């Protein structure tokens, strides 16, 4: 059955794997999930951050399980899937949240910047989905949540690699939503706008100052709350913030006008 027909999803005791759990949106997703009694495997590279998060969230229905590693490494993905299998025997929700950005002119950057952004934001989530499918097939109301971006709908200058990676993730999410529907595996694409997190402190080899944000950044806990609401309601796609929805609308209805505005604005 396609996910657009699915009813409400109960997150209590849902078994969820969250990538990018050491800061920002991922950390808030773990907090929100644990508070509603979901069981969570949290992953990122910074071990101490994961340990601190697990320590903070004791006393709930399930302890936070942690696995530190680089999501772009195939061995790490395979090993963590094995551990999920050993602990739970199945997975209900995979949340591909980890991501990196890069800012600066495309021509002045090198191939390494493009590859790194694509590795983390596109190839890693793609391969997480492939690796987790056997576990998801055994899950209850299985769901893949991909954290994209408004910039996966509407491209802007000086963030070309990032836009490309998020457009690719959106295309893959749309294709897999159709392909996996018969197996009852749903795909939710989340497109946040600028969010308060460590994102702009961890940019890949970026060579210009941070550009102006469109509107006020959204707190990461609000993003997490909206993601959980969308998961519960069985939504297929959400775009966060009024400014973000306006951009996506303009992109669909008046792409030429929007390009002109962005050239002026940039
Ligand atoms: N912040 C924004 O304005 C914004 C807007 C739209 C969309 N988004 C998207 O939201 C998602 C979360 O970003 P955020 O804003 O919460 O940024 P953040 O605070 O920088 O968090 C990024 C997370 O990804 C992890 N990560 C990065 N590279 C990794 C790697 N190679 N292996 C494992 N983990 C890795 C980081 O953990 P470690 O460093 O510990 O590995 C961290 O936990 C991203 O997909 C981003 O593109 C953000």
List the topology elements.
Layout: E1 15-19, H1 24-35, E2 39-44, H2 47-56, E3 65-68, H3 74-88, E4 93-96, H4 111-137, E5 143-147, H5 160-181, E6 186-191, E7 195-196, E8 218-219, H6 220-233, E9 237-239, H7 242-253, H8 255-265
Helix pairs in contact: 1-6, 3-4, 4-5, 7-8
Bound molecules: NADP nicotinamide-adenine-dinucleotide phosphate.
Q: What do you see in this structure?
A:
It is built from 8 helices and 9 strands. The chain is of the alpha/beta class and 266 residues long. The chain has a single domain, classed as NAD(P)-binding Rossmann-like Domain (Rossmann fold). The strands form 2 sheets. A 7-stranded parallel sheet has the order 3-2-1-4-5-6-9, with helices on both faces. The protein has a two-stranded parallel sheet with strand order 7-8. Helix 1 links the parallel strand 1 (15-19) and strand 2 (39-44). It is globular and about 55 Å long. NADP nicotinamide-adenine-dinucleotide phosphate (NAP) binds at residues 20-26, 44-46, 49, 70-72, 97-100, 120, 147, 149, 192, 194-195, 197-199, 202, 220.
Ligands present: NADP nicotinamide-adenine-dinucleotide phosphate
Please estimate the helix content. Answer: 40-55%
* Name of the CATH architecture: 3-Layer(aba) Sandwich
Task: Tell me about the largest β-sheet.
Answer: 7 strands, parallel
Total helical segments: 8
Strand content of the residues, in percent? 5-15%
> Rg, please?
18 Å
Low-pLDDT stretches are: 1-5
Tell me the structural class: alpha/beta
Q: If you consult CATH, what is the topology?
A: Rossmann fold
Tally of extended strands? 9
Query: pLDDT average, as an integer?
Result: 95
User: What pattern of helices and strands is seen along the backbone?
Assistant: EHEHEHEHEHEEEHEHH
